[in-house]
Amino acid sequence: MNSLNQQHKLQDLESTPIDEINLSNPAIFQQGVWGDYFARVRKERPVHYIKDSPFGPFWSITKFDDIVFVDSNHKLFSSEPNIMIGDRESELQAESFIAMDQPKHDVQRKAVQGVVAPKNLAAFESLIRERTQAVLDSLPTDEPFDWVEKVSKELTTLMLATLFGFPLEERSKLTFWSDIATASEALTGKTGVDPEYRLQCLYDCAKRFTQLWHETKDKEASFNLISMLQSSPDTKDMVDDPATYLGNILLLIVGGNDTTRNSMTGGVLALNQFPEQFEKLKAKPELITSMVSEIIRWQTPLAHMRRVALEDVELGGRTIKKGDKVVMWYISGNRDGDSIENPDQFIVDRANPRKHIAFGFGIHRCMGNRLAEMQLRILWEEILARFSEVKVLAEPERVESNFVHGYESMMVQLKSK
């Protein structure tokens, strides 16, 4: 098995044999060069097997239609025991419904999916707009600041706190726990985080949410995720199963944080890389809705999901054996030119903007997709109302991860209308 030091060294794309190309190397994402690696694999070996990687042997599914096939066939491909490419540390076997097969998956998902039902999203809209306006009005103009810190993190963390009924004054903990949940060499290749420290942080998360459960248990039912878990007959005792409770809390935190937060940043970056599209948007603000879908496709905030083959499967002329690890690279499928026209271009008026796989397919399709879209739509409506320019001043600092495709920081400067 390759060492992690070897993993974090970029392979020479031209000279490395195709079977040795390691798409799990977090360096290709952190350095923003992932597109070239996936383009070669899609062309030469779209159903790709690597025998020797820091995460063990695995198959990479890189084409749009093949990913849809795998994601839609939960009877052929299992989500258990984990959705990230690496294996969890034995000390923390947290379980969540996204990494469960039927029938357990639907039972637990059903308990909380009402929080993003259409009528409830409508009720959220005024609150999201009010907060977005307040955050944007607090920003400096004509001087540099970090968009990730001041806008993306702040807006998503406020929303997370509301969804959980979590104290607003403690909301920064939610962002921290979201980041620490995926900050593992074993899971995603993230370096520099001590495993024991990470585990302690996650135990702290479990302790705080257990406390929150008991604080709200006897109160009148509220419209938040904790209250919904308590109200469902199937999950009303989940707090007594710490692994499952923590696993689902972390799933909902990461799902509610990473998709929206990194798309909020990615959209600004995309419009800087394609300035003619920003001019088009300013001339026709009604394009915001279609642009939101384009942002999510172009960014693809979660790069992959993992499955395990439940039987031998033929795909792309290759045989995936029962028990093999299978990684669906959403980030690659969303740049597949056979399914999406001009996939590397950011186009605000794309003809079919919803044709993307960033939210997944099948029973595990992202539960909060419409909430994420609403938050992004409102953000851009309010940006266009205030600013003529959101200028990116330097290349952003990207997350070191093969799972979270996101940003640590991005310095920008605003110009008022």
Description:
This protein has 417 residues and is of the alpha+beta class. 47% of the residues lie in helices and 11% in strands. The strands form 4 sheets. It has a 5-stranded mixed beta sheet with strand order 1-2-8-5-3. The chain has a 3-stranded antiparallel beta sheet with strand order 4-12-9. Helix 6 (118-137) packs parallel to helix 16 and helix 12 (242-273) runs parallel beside helix 16. Mean pLDDT is 88; it is low at 1-6.
Tell me what portion of residues adopts beta-strand conformation. Answer: 5-15%
CATH topology: Cytochrome p450
Distance between the termini: 56 Å
Task: Report the helical percentage.
Answer: 40-55%
Whole-number mean pLDDT: 88
Shape: globular
* CATH H-tier superfamily: Cytochrome P450
Structural class: alpha+beta
> Which segments are poorly predicted (pLDDT under 50) over 5 or more consecutive residues?
1-6
Q: State Rg.
A: 21 Å
| Second-tier CATH architecture | Orthogonal Bundle
Number of strands: 12
Reading off the top of the CATH hierarchy, the class is best stated as Mainly Alpha
Number of separate structural domains: 1
What is the topology, as strand order, of the major beta sheet? Answer: 1-2-8-5-3
